[in-house]
Amino acid sequence: MFAGGARIGQVITLGDLLVGQPPVMVYPIDPGSRIVRDGSRLNQILLVRLSPDELDEDTRAGSADGVLGYSGVCTHAGCDVTLWQPETRRFRCPCHESEFDPRDKGRVVGGPAPRRLPRLPVKIVDGVVVAGGSFIGRPGFLPG
Amino acid sequence: MTSARALVGIGSLLVATTVPATLLGGCTTQGMGTGTATMTQPAPRARTTTGAASYAAVTDQRLVNPEADNWLMYRRTYDGWGYSPLEQINTGNVKNLVPLWTFSTGVAEGHQAPPIVNNGIMFVSTPQNQVLALDAKTGELLWRYKRELPEDLFQLHPTNRGVGLYEDKVYLATLDAHVVALDARTGKLLWDRTVEDYKKGYYMTLAPLVAKGKVMVGVSGGELGIRGFVQALDARTGQSSWKTFTIPAPGEPGSETWKGDSWKTGGASVWITGSYDPQLNLTYWGTGNGAQWMGDQRPGDNLYSSSVIALDADTGKLRAFHQYHWNDSWDWDEVSAPILMDVQRGGRTIKSLVHPGRDGYLWVLERRADAIAFVDGKPYVKQTVFTKLDPRTGRPEYDQTKKPVTGKKIPFCPSLWGGKDWPPAAYNPKTGYLYIPTNENLCGSLLGTAKPYEEGKLWLGTEIKDIGMVVADGANHIGEIQAWDMNTGQKVWMRTFESHNWGPVLTTGGGLVFAGGTNDRYFRAFDGKTGEPLWQWRTNSGITGVPSSFAVDGVQYVAVQSGWGVDAQRMQGALDDIRGAKTDVPQGGVIWVFGVKR
Fold it and tell me: Cys-Cys with B196: which of B177, B333, B379, B418 at CB 3.0–4.6 Å?
C-alpha cells in the first residue's frame, strides 16, 4: 500500500506503476494476517517501473514487468530515499545526496553511501505486486 | 498500525513469508530495531600517573574559573570564547609544531567535537555517539563507550559536538534524543534518560551545558517539524529539572506571533551548547529557523525562532530574548550561542552578546538581568536581504523580492548555510579580536512548496531540487577567517581560502589562531594580530572539529579531530554540482595531538 501522499493506505496494483513515472514508497502487508507492516521505517519499500531491457540480468531476474523493489531507507545514514532523477534513472537521498542505480542492483553511483540499496525481488500475482523473496542485503544503515 | 487499515490492504503488496524474521518480526504495532542498549568496552588502565584512578572531580568553581591547563567544556569557558590562556606554544615556536600522537576513532562522518581535557584525561565524542577517554599525554585508551543506536534512526546530521563534565561524570546528548551519564573513571553507564521521541524527528548533536548541578540540552529537528526546547536534567539522577519550549504555547507571551496550529511544528531547534553568565545566572541559547522553511506558510514573527533566548539556569524561565530576524524564510538557523564579552561603545563598557549570524550580520547586543538590548549590527559577508535595521530595536526590514515564498523561485545572499553556520567563532582577550570562520561569495535560491506535515519526515517547504546555490561571478575564494576589533566595529584582517571553510576556531594566549575547515585537509595556525600564516599540517581528512588546547605536566598541546562530513560535505557536493567537478575528501576520524618538537 502507499506509505504516504494523497493515496496513503491504498493498495498498489501494476496499473499504478507506469514506466517513466517516479517511484512510489510503500509498506508491505502480511499475506496471512493482512497486517500492514508499517511499524518500522525499515520496512519502507520503493517500487519503480522501468523498461525491462534497461535492466542488468540479475536485476531483471528479480523484477516483474519491469517493476523493481528496493529498500526505501538509505544505507548511509538511514534517511528516506525520496528523490528520483528521471534522466539518469537514479534514486537520490535528500539528506546527503547518495545516489543508487535501480537498473544495476541498487549500486551506489554517488554520495557517501557505503553499500547498495537492498533489493527486494518482486512478482506480479493477479495484477498485484508481491514480494518474491527477502531483501538482498540488510535495510538501513549499519550502526557503529 | 491499525487492523482497520490492514483490511484496506487485502490483495495488495504481499510480503512473502521468506522475508527474514529480523525484518518483520514483532512490528505489527510497535517499531522495531529501536533498541537503546549500550555497551562499554573496558580498556587497560592507563599506565601513567594521569590515569583515570586519580580523576579530579569537576566542580562549579572549576567550571566558572578553569585552570589554564584544562579545557572542561565545549568552548572551554561559559562565555563561549574558545580561548586557552596557555602561551607556551606561541607565534615564535609554532613553526615547530608536530603531531605527538594520533588515535583512529573507527567511524566516518563529521567529527565536530572538541577534545575535552580534565587534568590529563581527554574525553572525545565522535559520530555514532561514541565517547573515548584517553590519556591526554600518551594517547593511551582508558575506556570506550559506544551507544547502540536504533537501526531505524534517521540521521540528518550524523555527528556529535562534545561531552559535558560534572563531578565524576561525563554526559552525552545522543542522536536518538537521550542524555546518558557515564562514570568518568570507567565509562560505565550510570543513567540513560529519554528527552524526546526520535521517531518524531527529535535528535541531539550538541555538547551539554553543565552548571549548578544541571545538565542542559536542546533538541534538533527543525527540518522535521519539531517544536524546539531546552531541558535541564539533574546531573546526579537525570531527573528533569525544567523544560522550556522555544515556541510559546497559545496564551503565553509571544504566542500571538504564530497562527493556528503552526506553533506545534514550528521548529526553532537548539543546535549548539548555550553560553552562561554566572553573575546573571542566565544561559543564552541560539535558536533555529521556523519550520517548514517558507515563512508565508507560518505568518507572523514566529518567536523565538532565529533568536537568542536567555533562560534562568535554576528554573528555565525565559528572562529575555532578541530575535535576530523575524519569520525566517532562508533556513538561517541562528545556531551559535552568543559570545559573552565586553565591548566599548561611546566610552562605555557594554557587557555584550556578540553573534556572527547565519543571516550574515555581526550582531552586538547588551545583556542585562531582565532584557537583551540591541546595540548594533552590520553585514560581514554579502547580504542582499536586509534593507535597514531599526536603530532602536535592530529589527531588520526586508527586500521582499529576496524573501522566499511558496510558488516562486527567490534568490538571496548569503546562501542557506549563511555567512557562518555552526562552526564557532573565537575571542582572544589579549589581541582583543574576534575570529569568525566564514563563507563568502555564495548565494542561494529557494522555491517554496506547500506539503502537509508528516511526523518524523523531512518537512522543508521546498523540494530538494529547488534549493539553489550560485558562486559569485569572478569569485577567487569562498572560505575566510575574519578578525574583527569589536571595540571599533572594524574588520582588521582576513585570510581567504579557495575551498569553503567549516573550521571551528581556537585562539590562545600565545597569540595564535588555529583552524582547519578546508577540503585540502590542512590544520593551520595564524598570527592572531596580523593573520599571517605561521604553520600548517596536512591531516587524514578535512577538519570540522573544534580544536582545543591544554597542558599536562607543564607541557602545552593543541588537539583536534579530523573527520569530514555533514554540511561541509553537503556544501562540497553543491559546489561540485555547480562546477561539474568531483572532489574526494577522504572520510574517517582521527584525533590529532600536536606539541612543539624538542
Answer: B177
